TrEMBL record:
Family: Belongs to the UPF0065 (bug) family.
SUPFAM superfamilies xrefs: Periplasmic binding protein-like II
Signal peptide start and end residues: 1-26
InterPro entries: BUG, Bug_dom1, TAT_signal
Protein name as catalogued: Tripartite tricarboxylate transporter substrate binding protein
Keywords: Signal
Top-rank lineage group of the source organism: Bacteria
Length: 321
């Protein structure tokens, strides 16, 4: 090999090494994530965790989280479906979205959007103010047996997961879910304020949403809705306290049906890589979320099952029109 050829080969090897060492180029630019609830909600926390993990891994840049609260997430869904397509867009949804669609029959449904991926599952807690005379689930059950209507439940959107859990507990204890006396709140802050103020008997919500108030001693957790006790949380399940209810929420991502096949693949690939990142796994641990990733096909089948289950639960609550 001549000196010139050796020099050319060395330059080529050096260039290859530089390319290999360089960080991966972002695949998606200008991504918008619609969080269909107020800041601090489960939808918002999930949307921002997705944003942070995608950006840290170099899978996307210039990501904006847009809060569009209201109507159990269906206002955000309507914006996704009817909005002018400007760039790649994701919508975070959950069990609450499915319930709101079934109960309220809005003009747009999940059939008008395209599933991208299921991300996680999350269970709920039943909480009371620290000064409440309800110390355990047995105390709450006694009140429900005596007079179900006298027990007021602070829950999120009508037909949402909090509402369904309240109904299933009322049914398991008193035999009639339709007697559930639920008070709906648009945001977690309003719900927590009502519970702390003693304006309701008991509240139902995601574990992360109540965590700080429980740690400060302002709220008392009397049960979790998971099949087994949650790691790191010293709270008994409903089942182990004699109430045969085990159900939780979940969150996943949808996109517009206007997205091309190439754009769908790009979004799906980015999320598939994202759920393996350290940043995403750190968010799972921080919020107590349970990993439940499913790509678009598995997610679509999951959504169908959820719709069937929630249709039954909402019918028992008397919420289906």
């Amino acid at each position: 090999m001549t000196r010139m050829h050796r020099r050319t080969a060395l330059f080529a090897l050096a260039a290859l090494a530089m390319v290999s060492a360089a960080p991966a180029q972002a695949q998606i630019k200008g991504l918008e994530i619609i969080a269909p609830a107020n800041p601090g909600s489960g939808f918002d926390q999930t949307s921002r965790a997705v944003r942070d993990a995608l950006m840290e891994a170099g899978l996307a840049t210039n990501i904006q989280v847009l809060n569009v609260p209201g109507a159990g997430g269906t206002i955000g869904l309507a914006q996704l479906v009817s909005g002018q397509k400007r760039g790649p867009t994701l919508l975070t949804i959950g069990a609450t979205t499915v319930g709101a669609i079934l109960a309220n029959k809005p003009p747009v449904t999940l059939e008008d959007a395209a599933p991208v991926a299921l991300l996680l599952k999350e269970y709920s807690m039943l909480v009371v103010p620290a000064n409440s005379d309800i110390k355990t689930m047995a105390d709450l059950s006694a009140k429900l047996k005596a007079n179900p209507a006298s027990v007021t439940w602070a829950v999120g959107s009508a037909g949402g997961i909090d509402h369904i859990i309240a109904g299933q507990v009322t049914k398991a204890v008193s035999g009639d879910a339709s007697k559930t006396n639920a008070i709906n709140y648009a945001g977690g802050g309003e719900q927590i304020a009502s519970i702390l103020g003693g304006h309701v008997t008991v509240g139902v919500g995601g574990v992360p949403e109540f965590a700080s108030q429980i740690e400060s001693g302002k709220l008392r957790a009397i049960a979790v809705s998971s099949p087994e006790r949650l790691e790191g949380l010293d709270v008994p399940t409903l089942k182990e306290q004699g109430v045969d209810v085990a159900y939780g929420t979940w969150r996943g991502l949808m996109t517009t049906k206007k997205a091309s096949e190439a754009e769908m693949k790009e979004l799906g690939d980015a999320i598939r890589k994202m759920v393996e990142t350290k940043a995403w796994k750190a968010s799972l641990e921080r919020y107590g979320w349970i990993p439940a990733y499913e790509p678009s096909d598995g997610y679509a089948a999951f959504l169908k099952g959820e719709q069937d289950m929630m249709r039954t639960a909402l019918g028992e609550l008397g919420l289906l029109k």
